């Protein structure tokens, strides 16, 4: 079979790309090639927190388009994995105007009841002099990225015209004289008119005469780490984001929360990370958490770590392979691959469709 489009990678962006193809081109045959399992890799470990925040016009466009698709998915079985969550920001009062300029929703000071709720979660929370707690009336949301990817791909397969093939590591892509692409794996070859590469931080396959490093941007892999801690929370309690520390505490279930913190380690090999934190991940994360809540730090029970690919502008990008029309890569999740995934998928489909 020659597919109308091949999608390499069944993480959240690859699965959303298949969904987007079905929306825009319901007569296209789709083949999804995944080396491990649907939603494995970076998708499996992402916190999936969707802040209503964007720093640039392009970021705002991607966020708005993604929100529209998430709203549509919320009305499907995949909606079980999109959870609204209140969000509280602890920020310096002097930086409040800058924060407002980046928000997609109007901010206001928290009410006494909202502050009480936060202080029940973080009983010894440190609010520094000059800091203020603010929120917005509409909630943000959290995406359970791996089950969402699985649910979205299930929708695609159920509609027909979509095939998923696991255990397929694409190593090379070549274009023949008829303009079709052959995707080589250790198990055989696949053929498609168009290709979207959604490989996350892992290396791209060789593409004809163009090598992966020929893409016009240079990304760097970054170690991403988080902690798991026991706290008196329920899943509908607010997420608390300490903007000055780039630290947030996200309730995940009754009695448990995820703590995301900035891990300043670059050029990690994603093949060497399996989700388990090392001692330095735990030490660094616990130290920054303790600066805001010693009790939360004392109840850390583990964590997670993985890689993401970051681009210089700190936003993901959709780019065409040089010399290979109809081959597009979604590059550099940059920590935003889940929250901006629907818009990135739509852009990738628009670009490959432009080649007929």
Automatic annotation (TrEMBL):
<keyword id="KW-0560">Oxidoreductase</keyword>
<feature type="domain" description="FAD dependent oxidoreductase">
    <location>
        <begin position="4"/>
        <end position="347"/>
    </location>
</feature>
<dbReference type="InterPro" id="IPR036188">
    <property type="entry name" value="FAD/NAD-bd_sf"/>
</dbReference>
<dbReference type="Pfam" id="PF01266">
    <property type="entry name" value="DAO"/>
</dbReference>
<dbReference type="GO" id="GO:0016491">
    <property type="term" value="F:oxidoreductase activity"/>
</dbReference>
<dbReference type="InterPro" id="IPR006076">
    <property type="entry name" value="FAD-dep_OxRdtase"/>
</dbReference>
<protein>
    <submittedName>
        <fullName>NAD(P)/FAD-dependent oxidoreductase</fullName>
        <ecNumber>1.-.-.-</ecNumber>
    </submittedName>
</protein>
